Amino acid sequence: MTHPVSSGGAACRRRRCAALLAAGVLLPLPVLTGCGGGDDAEEAGPGAQDIAVTARDRVRRGGTLRWAVDAVPGTLNAFQARADAATRRVTDAVLPRLFTLDERGRPQRNPDYLTAADVTDREPRQTVVYKINPKARWSDGRAVGPEDFAAQWKALRGKDNAYWSARNAGYDRIEKVEQGGSAHEVEVTFAKPYADWTSLFTPLYPKSVMGDARAFNDGARERLAETAGPFTVRGRDGGDGGDGGDGGGGTLTLVRNPKWWGAPAKLDSIVLTALPREERAAALAAGKADLAEVDPADARKITAAGRPAASGSASAGSPGAGSPGAGSPSAGSPGAGSPGAGAPDGASEAGRVEGAEHEAGHSPAAGGDDAPPRGASAAERDALRRYTVRKALEPAYTQLALNGSAHPLNDDRVRRAVARAVDRQKLADSVLKPLGLPNRPLGSHLLMAGQPGYADHSGALGGPDTTAARAMLADAGWRAPGGSSAQPQKPGQEPEKRVDADRGGSDDGKAGDPERAAAAPAAPLSSAGVRSADLQRSALLRQSAGLYKDVAANRRAAAAGDTTASAYADYRRYEMLAADALSIAEMIEVAPAPGGRGAEQADGVRAADGKPVEGGLAAPADAYRAADPAARGPVPALKKDGKPLVLRFVLPDGPGSERLRTVADRISGMLARIGVQTAVQKVPDKSYFEDHIAAGDFDLALYTWPGSAYPATDGRPIHAKPQPAADGSLTVEQNYTRVGTDHIDQLFDQAAAELDEDASRELIERADARIWAAAGSVPLYQRPEVVAARKDLVNAGAFGFATPRFQNIGYKK
Questions:
Q1: Which domains does the chain have, with CATH numbers?
Q2: CA of 745: how far to CAs of 177, 457, 763, 766, in Å?
Q3: pLDDT in tens, 214-268
């Protein structure tokens, strides 16, 4: 056989790719030459950012930006649990941010604070040397120095309980922080290697905050006496930033820092104004805000106002560059939540609750304000013409969460069946397409589209396939009345009703109907057929492993013993891929056919003790290929031991959640096609997350997680395997689906400790594939970010992943 990396040509590449793809396993195939289109994230692409980028010399000096926020910050300490999006906005403007993020989420050294930052040693200990810009000074005149770094490390490393910090990731790996060769040099030595070291010391607080527990806990909540950014905090007016309230109402004002050593801020001031989403359209029309994230319904009003009156009504919903498109009856989008201090760059400590805030596009069925603004007054239209709409994909994703601790979703076969019933493309289309944003479903739990290393690993679970989903449910013992596998109902027959006061219908449950049998898709394969397909997949996986081993051997020889060479990194990567393929093949080979029993089963079948087997990447039920992929319609409700398969779908019931409920309704309809009923429970927004999601009081739920530039650090607590606590409870960290494996944890730990960027990224890819296979959560789409901005406001809008350059924001000359 021609060597897979020799010059054997396209035929060899086609044979190699065919074998790997036929295996039905999503190992990171794009790294094989010729197997894919390469890195999905070569360019940021459309939807990454929309801020009206303008050179500084075209921005006039002066003016005030009134920026609408959901609430004034409850704290100015980004490392406390109450930190939110507004906290992040303030600290980005007034404190040192050693590394900023570009539009693709890549950390970039900030020259305003650092002249250099490098890993100078890897053995025997990782050492990083920061060289501070000598001009960097706190507002009291003191130079930013090593003592500030040391104080922050000691406060956040988790050894002093006097500090009420929400996180210590990375700081707990540091052995010591000391001055380097000069007063402007900091040397940080790690006890354990840390790949995400650029996430540390951002934001950097002065030692007056970090060196005193009382200042850390209480003082920094309300004020920052020392700052070191292009702006400084003047103070707040109204609102409640203390423990007694929710931070609602009021303003917080930032003013230009006269002691700033960098390019001076163009604006005189920025006023963060607490403004509920439902009041923002009116505030814009009244000229009370200059920049505000808005619902697509309000965005359409703004877009329509800018068109000639004769055509404004007819075309109010037409998509166009720089403006949101028409809403569709199903176009709903969840709301934003408040990112807490759970991870660097504002990643949420508790996740963002879908619908807790308003966001893109409510369904017309849920609220009349989605209709074109025919009734808008001439004065309102004139006022809204001053604004434009800027939109991008926010670095956050909406997911369907499946509670793996609750029956029947503690059976991984049921979870996979539910996940395979969801058509993510249809949901992404309904949310993003009307806005003119890229509408591909998100294919990763750990990286957003456009980030380096992003790849779609959903193949580890499998695509939408109702026949495969029904087969997995049947294997788990869930069958239609009469004992047959669930099949679609014949045309005209009333479906089994969804358990919800808003919907009706029933099914007579008749089995053996000849008309139904004639209209139904072909029956699933027999157990023998499934087993044959499994063994074929196993053989292809072993073939893939052999190919990976050949590549590994070739790359090891090319490295010639140099462990720092890229060829050696390739060798390690392909060795891991080969081990993965062999491991999965072995699990398939020891698993019996569906319905059988054995010592252990993989991916969709159960071990003898009833626990899911870890590490698998694709369900054997993939062998159940739908004879009619277009099969549609509900099927009779499935039952097991006489009990129907009903999943409780918990949703927030607030005024900003209409579109979220529209998405949930679509998912319920998809599940009905495989015989799964959903019982919708609507709960108050304020209790949704704490009392239901975090408490595990749900079967299905929708909420949002923020993306991160540091997935090895920030992804682990979200996907960590729950561990029993001493009191008998379950410690879940941030893994509210309660689905995890030891192997996933190990991959995260290895990625966080791997200083080779490519090797760390490979480990993240492997972890993501296993998260998909575990089917605890299903990423659906990236959230849209829709922002109304004054037409003359530049360098601001829908920022996407990028860190705002506050000194460049202003009004065009």
A1: 96-227 (3.90.76.10), 351-369+394-524+624-785 (3.10.105.10)
A2: 28, 18, 11, 11
A3: 999 999 998 999 999 999 999 888 765 444 444 457 999 999 999 999 999 999 9
